[in-house]
Write a structure and sequence with these properties.
Layout (H helix, E strand, L loop, with lengths): L15 E5 L4 H11 L3 E6 L19 E5 L7 H10 L3 E4 L5 H5 L3 H7 L4 E6 L14 H7 L19 H26 L4 E5 H8 L1 H8 L20 E4 L5 E4 L4 H11 L14 H12 L4 H8 L6 E3 L10 H6 L2 E4 L2 E4 L23 H7 L11
Parallel strand pairs: 1-2, 1-4, 2-3, 4-5, 5-6
Antiparallel strand pairs: 7-8, 8-9, 10-11
Length: about 375
């Protein structure tokens, strides 16, 4: 019998993943693997992770199963090693050296399972002067230069939630890394350690910008460039009701349609003269302030002017395009993003709600043949 958190389909069906519970990018990476069909067993600690979120609402634990193991207990490490022996991938997000001290580091795990891909998720990486320092998303992206790119030039940099560092520079690179290593392990029989550092991934995300800077096409300061709000036809503008529209007609033919629909065709030539950009910006801003966000949305509906309303998190699921695609789904009373990307032959779905700590112990012990997980060991 298949239980809620057990994979039933997806391109990673049959792949087994052990996630040593943490917060932020590690759980999100494991969720992505679970969304893609992997059987992810989250090893929760007694008392939970302590992030103040009711586990029933922590959607980054969807599509997973949970067991509780106290790694500081006498047989705790042995139980994790039993799981690692039967897994394809293990993910941990401790500071460097902690997993080793707990007895579940790469050497111990891979001694039991040489094919194991051991994914390590940290902010600073496994080595370097800051490797053992505490940190969070904002500090990691600050050091890479990416935080300093965002915001107004005469104000402090704007904080992009924890999307840029934790999830884009962290989780996604960890997933790419462990899947690449899994491909190698299946071809050669040899697993390996994947060191996914948020500083590395976030720096990597800025590759194009560094190329533009080297070519003299990007200034190393905020709001002075084509894609950072410095360009008047790539940015956001307030509407009459205090909401906003996003504008991005970079190509000439899109721009022509934009100024025509906005009602400022006389300012069209200002696009090619940076000396007139402030004049253009003021003209665009003045026009957008004459109507509400929804009225402007109707004006640009069906056009190629590359203009869109800026929606809130609660508004986004109801947008006709996202609703038609099923970009968001309702599961267990929680509206949440659907798994992405999409696959023609191995579709994915939200199969189960957030895994509740420890509730799947008996099922995992049976399915993975790890009797030591149960209290009586049998």
């Amino acid at each position: 019998m298949t239980v809620a958190g057990t994979p039933g389909h997806g391109p990673l069906a049959g792949v087994r993943v052990v996630e040593l519970a943490g917060i932020g990018p590690g759980p999100f990476a494991a969720m992505l693997l679970a969304d893609l069909g992997a059987d992810v067993v989250r090893v929760d600690r007694p008392g939970g992770p302590g992030i103040g979120v009711d586990p029933a609402y922590d959607t980054t634990n969807r599509n997973k199963r949970s067991v509780i193991i106290d790694l500081k207990s006498e047989d705790g490490p042995a139980r994790v090693l039993d799981l690692a022996e039967r897994a394809d991938i293990l993910i941990e997000g401790y500071r460097p050296g902690v997993a080793e001290r707990l007895g579940v580091g790469p050497e111990a795990c891979r001694a039991r399972n040489p094919r194991l891909v051991y994914g390590r998720m940290t902010g600073w990486g496994q080595e370097g002067p800051l490797a053992h320092r505490a940190g969070h998303d904002i500090a990691y992206i600050a050091l890479t230069g990416t935080l300093g790119m965002i915001g107004e030039p005469d104000e402090p940099p704007s904080v992009p939630a924890n999307l840029l560092g934790d999830y884009a520079g962290g989780s996604l690179y960890l997933v790419v890394g462990v899947l690449a290593a899994l491909h190698h392990a299946r071809a050669t029989g040899a697993g390996q350690v994947v060191d996914a550092a948020i500083v590395d991934g976030t720096a990597h995300l800025s590759t194009m910008i560094h190329g533009m800077m080297a070519a003299g096409a990007w200034q190393d300061r905020r709001r002075a460039n084509l894609l950072d709000g410095g360009c008047p036809y790539y940015g956001t503008y307030e509407t009459a009701d205090g909401r906003h529209m996003a504008v991005g007609p970079l190509e000439q033919h899109f721009y022509d349609e934009f100024v025509e629909l906005l009602g400022i065709p006389e300012l069209g030539p200002a696009r090619r003269d940076p000396a007139r950009w402030e004049e253009l910006r003021e003209g665009v801003a003045a026009r957008f302030r004459t109507r509400t966000r929804d009225e402007w949305t109707a004006v640009f509906e069906g056009s190629d002017a590359c203009v869109a309303p800026v929606l809130s998190l609660r508004e986004a699921p109801a947008h006709p395009h996202l609703a038609a695609r099923g970009t968001f789904v309702d599961h267990g009373g929680i509206t949440q993003p659907a798994p992405a990307p999409r696959f023609s032959a191995t579709p994915t779905s939200v199969r189960g709600g957030p895994a509740q700590p420890g509730v799947d112990t008996a099922d995992v012990a049976r399915d993975w043949d790890v009797p030591r997980l149960t209290k009586d060991g049998g």
